[in-house]
């Protein structure tokens, strides 16, 4: 199973934000959309960063409530790890585990085409395990 399979099921909509938007605006956006991260895009829609709930909490803890008025570019994660649609779920799980992050933008030819969360990966893996289990049951019944 690949990242493309997940995107086919969940869709390719990605919530983005301008680097000049405030942290307060990013917080509102995360809350309104019920998501855990927003991709920061620059000129021509290129991914230049990502802001997660964790980034915001870390900034609040270090700088206090005043951080809500600064641009997201000041707190965003700049080194964004991405994946491609052809990457396997196993590869993505390993990347997320090693990097200790829960959201990975999907990029093809320098273009943002989706985002995958750890929840998407777990759901996909559980469905795959259920299919394998059902196939084994069917095989045992017919043997």
From TrEMBL:
It comes from Rhodoplanes elegans. Pfam families: CBS. This is Inosine-5-monophosphate dehydrogenase. The keyword Transmembrane does not apply. Gene3D superfamilies: CBS-domain. InterPro entries: CBS_dom (IPR000644), CBS_dom_sf (IPR046342), CBSX3_CBS_dom (IPR044725), Diverse_CBS-Domain (IPR051257). Residues 8-70, 76-132 form the CBS domain. Keywords: CBS domain. Signal peptide: none annotated.
């Amino acid at each position: 199973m690949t990242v493309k399979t997940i995107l086919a099921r969940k869709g390719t909509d990605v919530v983005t934000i301008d680097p000049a938007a405030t942290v307060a605006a990013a917080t509102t956006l995360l809350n309104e959309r019920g998501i855990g991260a927003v991709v920061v895009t620059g000129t021509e829609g290129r991914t230049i960063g990502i802001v997660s709930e964790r980034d915001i909490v870390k900034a609040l803890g270090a700088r206090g409530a005043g951080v809500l008025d600064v641009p997201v570019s000041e707190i965003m994660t700049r080194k964004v790890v991405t994946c491609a649609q052809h990457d396997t779920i196993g590869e993505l799980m390993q990347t997320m585990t090693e990097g200790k992050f829960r959201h990975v933008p999907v990029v093809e030819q320098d273009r943002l085409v989706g985002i995958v969360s750890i929840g998407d990966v777990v759901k996909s893996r559980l469905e795959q395990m259920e299919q394998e289990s059902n196939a084994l049951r069917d095989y045992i019944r017919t043997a």
